[in-house]
Write a structure and sequence with these properties.
Blueprint (H helix, E strand, L loop, with lengths): L4 E8 L2 E7 L4 E2 L2 E3 L6 H13 L4 E11 L2 E9 L11 E7 L10 H10 L10 H4 L3 H5 L5 H11 L7 E5 L5 H8 L3 E6 L2 H10 L3 E4 L12 E7 L8 H11 E11 L2 H6 L8 H8 L3 H10 L2 E10 L3 E4 H9 L11 H19 L2 E4 L2 E9 L2
Parallel strand pairs: 1-6, 8-9, 8-11, 9-10, 11-12
Antiparallel strand pairs: 1-2, 1-4, 2-3, 2-7, 5-6, 12-16, 13-16, 14-15
Length: about 375
């Protein structure tokens, strides 16, 4: 077998390093062998040239069979600010999600990540979760804050055509319809859509966010409310939302910041913060992907609800019923033990009652003309 060269996936914590080739687009560092170089020597030389950094802890991951040829794949750990040493590279950047503009076949990048041990995100079974989804959340005092934040951040006016991507049981779609908008809801889960249909015979359809079954330039607003963290190819989903928007239309994404995840009370539950940090893209990077996908006028609004006091018993019971999707990802064999640790930590810090609130970051951006 004749190797074309070597390629490197370099990790800094959860992030990996990518470079933008001057004549192509975004790709992992790497290149062709020179002289009698071994594949590892090629990987290390190309990595220094394209990033200005020297990795540590190098590991060989096998041979990747790509359309353009066979490449030896290596991983390493890296730190520091990248500074390309060759004019072939226009930019180098740490990311947690692939850019929309890539040099080679998109699926090949996911193949390489899988070889490097970075598989798809863990997924919540929303068909199962749909059975109790609304009863666990129900109508709460925070609903008015959600509707206000959506209307304000999305610049929603009466008669606006809205695409609700990841609509779930239709909670936000229905609220905006009552405010005079025309809303079309899409979700990957048939169970969630079935629940939405019990509320109103609106326009609901099953779909993948990375491949929307809608025509181009049809909507004034495309919104993804706490849904992007479930998508493996985030930038492709953003690009699909852009395609569905009219020129000058707006995208609205609701997410949870990494800072909030780290300081939230859910962090007392063993492993829960890590699960969320692995799924939620950092807000600064999300803004970068919006710009890279062709959005401008990016604005940010943080919704914070007033703190409410509830008993630790009630809070633990909500956790036991897995009131947030991340709890469904905790292995069943570990759940009760981790729940007991969570309760013990909570009582030690808060006593018999605790204050809770909701904090959501909304990002709004306009499709460039």
């Amino acid at each position: 077998m004749s190797l074309k060269g070597s390629i490197v996936i370099a990790f800094s914590g959860r992030r990996y390093l990518m470079v933008r080739h001057a004549q192509r687009a975004w790709e992992y560092p790497g290149g062709r062998s020179e002289g009698n170089e071994t594949p590892l020597e090629t990987a290390k030389r190309e990595f220094v040239e394209e990033t200005g950094l020297a990795g540590t802890g190098w590991k060989e991951c096998g041979i990747a069979h790509l359309v353009t040829g066979d490449l030896a794949l290596f991983t390493c750990k890296v730190s520091g600010r990248p500074k390309p040493q060759t004019d072939e590279i226009s930019e180098a950047r740490f990311l947690t999600a692939l850019p929309v503009n890539l040099s080679f076949e998109r699926q090949e990048y996911f193949q390489l990540m899988a070889m490097a041990g970075l598989g798809p995100k863990q997924k919540t079974d929303y068909d199962a979760a749909s059975r109790e989804f609304d009863s666990l959340r129900g109508k709460t005092a925070s609903d008015e804050y959600w509707t206000d934040a959506l209307t304000r951040s999305g610049h929603i006016r009466s008669g606006a055509r809205i695409l609700d991507i990841g609509c779930g049981t239709g909670r936000h779609s229905i609220a905006l319809e009552r405010a005079g908008a025309e809303v079309f809801g899409l979700d990957y889960s048939a169970g969630m859509l079935s629940r939405a249909n019990t509320k109103t015979r609106g326009c609901w359809a099953q779909a993948d966010a990375a491949g929307l079954p809608v025509g181009g330039e049809k909507f004034d607003l495309a919104m993804m409310i706490l849904g992007l963290q479930h998508v493996d190819d985030e930038s492709l989903a953003i690009s699909e939302a852009r395609r569905a928007l009219k020129p000058g239309g707006r995208i609205l994404i609701a997410t949870v910041s990494n800072a909030r995840i780290r300081r939230n009370i859910t962090g007392l539950f063993p492993g829960l913060a890590k699960l969320d940090l692995d799924r939620f893209m950092p807000v600064p990077e999300l803004k970068w992907h919006l710009r890279n996908c062709g959005f401008t006028e990016i604005s940010q609004y943080v919704m914070r609800t007033p703190k409410k006091t509830e008993t630790v018993d009630a809070l633990v019971e909500r956790f036991r019923r897995r009131y947030i999707s991340t709890l469904a990802l905790v292995p069943e064999k570990d759940f009760e033990r981790n729940l007991a640790i969570f309760e013990a930590r909570l009582r030690k810090i808060c006593g018999n009652s605790a204050e809770t609130d909701v904090e959501i970051t909304f990002l709004s951006a306009v499709k460039m003309l």
